[in-house]
Write a structure and sequence with these properties.
The protein is α/β, with parallel strands linked by helices and about 375 residues long. The protein contains 12 helices and 15 strands. The chain has 2 domains: about 270 residues, Acetylglutamate kinase-like (Carbamate kinase), CATH 3.40.1160.10; about 100 residues, Archaeosine Trna-guanine Transglycosylase, Chain: A, domain 4. Helix 7 packs parallel to helix 8. The structure holds adenosine-5'-diphosphate and the ligand N[C@@H](CCC(=O)OP(=O)(O)O)C(=O)O. The site of the ligand N[C@@H](CCC(=O)OP(=O)(O)O)C(=O)O has 17 residues, from helix 1, helix 3 and strand 6. It is found in: Cytoplasm.
């Protein structure tokens, strides 16, 4: 996945040059206390149709299934427990998709329901499948409507918010920009309910966010991550060469026309694999291996695989295949990786050379502890200390 196609979009004024856009819309913009808001859907769909008419492919990431299931199930408010959220999502998903299907049909456009789990973006085979299927849908002129597969995800491996999912989808599909639509018109210097808060028009680097105060979810009470996950999502996108815009659903048309609305997050980094982004930023690590100085240099500087000989300690309980942290002797996390051995197997292997391990335990113990391709090195400033 190393292809490096330059992004034709350089700012708001060139957004019309985007070849591919991911548009994410939040629950609060799509639903009312009595279910799906048909007018809001028609308005979004009309905007998407206009963008597609100018030759831009669009992938829609739509939340709202849990919110859409609240009223039909007589729940009153957003359920808190996972099982009821899953039940509400299963009911709401059908209702939401029926509205999208009817609304896009007004433009003669087919839609496809694509339900993804976090696993689908981190496991190689699923990742390739998702990539291929979504690209095929776009080639067939279909609008994929993506959501997290709420009904089957477990608490452990769940995005829980579609903001970060949409950033990973933008990355997976090499989109040029990500539009995050919510119930507030921009990122503000503080929660917009505070009279002194001011709109932030541009975010060029992380330092622009240093003094921003980010509050909880909006007043509708159906959103999930609030502004925090939108800013996270924008960071994931921009860090991999994709511009991001946060604005309200009402401003979608103006934002896509390049007008000065919302908050524009300028792309900075180079494109990365979704798997690498997940591992580096999102994965919940199950444990830690402690490296001696030589191993830190080999893994971080020379980009080698981690061998048992350079490990001095193992912390936490993990299985082979789990994500773990790689820390130096003073507890600074220098990398994250998928580990090839469990926390019960590893202690007997520490400090031993590959040849010894093969002779003593068998040829399957020749594998590195973390292969270099399964390892994401953390930038110095992002490294957490113990
Ligand atoms: N600094 C901030 N700037 C803008 N909005 C903020 C800020 N802090 C908190 N918010 C809240 O985040 C809410 C949007 O998040 P959320 O409710 O999860 O929406 P969605 O359902 O669209 O994902 C806004 O309604 C706003 O009240
Ligand atoms: N998958 C969930 C989405 C949760 C979510 O991210 O909600 P939101 O904060 O409104 O974008 C649903 O469809 O209800």
């Amino acid at each position: 996945m190393a292809e490096q196609v330059p992004n034709p979009v350089t700012g708001r004024d060139t957004l019309h040059l985007a070849r591919r856009l991911v548009i994410k819309i939040g629950s609060s913009s799509l639903t009312t206390p009595t279910g799906v808001n048909r007018e809001a859907i028609d308005s979004l769909v009309d905007t998407i149709a206009a963008v597609r008419a100018r030759g831009t492919e669009v992938i829609l990431v739509s939340s709202g299934t849990i919110a859409a299931g609240i009223h039909p199930l007589g729940l009153g408010k957003r359920p808190r427990d996972l099982a009821t959220q899953q039940a509400a999502a299963a009911v709401g998903q059908g209702k939401l998709l029926a509205e999208y299907t009817a609304s896009f049909a007004r433009h003669g456009t087919e839609v496809a329901q694509v339900l993804l789990t976090a696993e689908d973006l981190i496991r190689r085979t699923q990742y390739t499948n998702a990539h291929r299927a979504l690209n095929r849908l776009l080639a067939l002129s279909v609008v994929p409507i993506v959501n997290e597969n709420d009904t089957v995800t477990t608490a452990e491996i769940r995005f829980g918010d579609n903001d970060r999912l949409s950033a990973l989808v933008a990355n997976l599909l090499r989109a040029d920009a990500l539009l995050l639509l919510t119930d507030v018109d921009a990122l503000y210097t503080a929660p917009p309910s505070r009279p002194s808060s001011e709109r932030i028009a541009h975010v060029v680097s992380k330092a622009d966010l240093d003094t921003v105060q980010i509050g909880r979810t909006g007043p509708a009470g159906v959103g999930t991550g609030g502004m925090v996950t939108k800013v996270d999502a924008a960071g994931i996108a921009t860090g991999s060469g994709i511009h991001a815009i946060v604005t309200s659903a009402q401003n979608a048309e103006a934002a896509l026309a390049g007008e000065d609305v919302g908050t524009w997050f300028q792309a900075s980094g180079r494109r990365q694999s979704a798997r690498g982004i997940w591992l580096g930023l999102l994965a919940e690590v199950q444990g830690r291996v402690v490296l001696d100085d030589g191993a830190v240099a080999a893994v971080v500087k020379n980009r080698r695989s981690l061998l048992p000989a350079g490990i001095t300690g193992v912390e936490g309980a993990f299985e082979a295949g789990d994500p773990v942290e790689l820390a130096d002797a003073v507890g600074t996390v220098v990398a994250r990786g998928f580990v090839n051995y469990s926390s019960t197997e590893l202690p007997a292997m520490l400090g031993r050379h590959t040849v010894q391990l093969r002779e003593e335990f068998g040829p399957e113990y020749q594998r590195p502890v973390v292969h270099t391709d399964d390892c994401v090195r953390l930038p110095t400033r992002a490294r957490p200390r113990r």
